[in-house]
Amino acid sequence: MFYEDVRIGQVAQFGSATFSRESILAYARLFDPRILVAAREGEPLSASGLHVASALMRRLIEGRAALRAAMATRGETLPELGVSPGFRDMRWPHPVREGDTVSFSMETISKRETSKPKWGLVGNAARGVNQRGEDVLLFSSLVLAARRTAEG
């Protein structure tokens, strides 16, 4: 999507992920051995926060790829992909327990022009919510979005 097409308040839904015991353990074997200790002690498992964040990022990338493919199919010009200056305030207010299903979304909360005429800066608020309606992942991010024209 081009900078000019982004609207403050628009919400993109990115589907959901179920965090089974097996998926939590598979992630733990690669990235978070603390979870393996809990598993050996027979405790109910909670997913690593970064496991939850990576599930959102995967769906975000897949969603962006699908949007770009649809644009290409319609013969539309594809915007250059911009980089993200980063995210902030990432937090996990509630744990993701084995068996939880988390739905992911991202709301556009700001946009502004930059000193580079080719790019605009878009602010987003990401959210993961479990099946009980509890926030399990929150963060805000910025991304450079290509402008349709240098003049906007």
Write the layout of secondary structure elements.
Elements: E1 11-19, H1 21-31, H2 33-40, H3 49-73, E2 86-91, E3 100-113, E4 119-130, E5 135-146
Antiparallel strand pairs: 1-3, 2-5, 3-4, 4-5
Helix pairs in contact: 1-2
How would you sum up this structure, described in words?
- By secondary structure, this protein is α+β, with helices and mostly antiparallel strands.
- The protein has a single domain, classed as Hotdog Thioesterase (Thiol Ester Dehydrase, Chain A).
- The protein is built from three helices and five strands.
- The protein has helices at 21-31, 33-40, 49-73, and strands at 11-19, 86-91, 100-113, 119-130, 135-146.
- A five-stranded antiparallel β-sheet has the order 1-3-4-5-2.
- A hairpin with a 4-residue loop joins strand 4 (119-130) and strand 5.
- Helix 1 (21-31) packs across helix 2.
Strand order of the largest sheet: 1-3-4-5-2
* Radius of gyration, taken over Cα atoms and rounded to an integer in Å: 18 Å
Task: Assign the CATH topology.
Answer: Thiol Ester Dehydrase, Chain A
The poorly predicted ranges are: none
Estimate what percentage of residues fall within beta strands.
25-35%
Query: How many individual helices?
Result: 3
Separation of the first and last Cα atoms: 14 Å
CATH architecture grouping: Roll
Q: State the CATH superfamily name.
A: Hotdog Thioesterase
Pairing-aware structural class of the strands and helices? alpha+beta
Label the overall shape.
elongated
Oligomer: single chain
CATH class: Alpha Beta
Order of SSEs, N→C?
EHHHEEEE
The largest β sheet comes out as:
5 strands, antiparallel
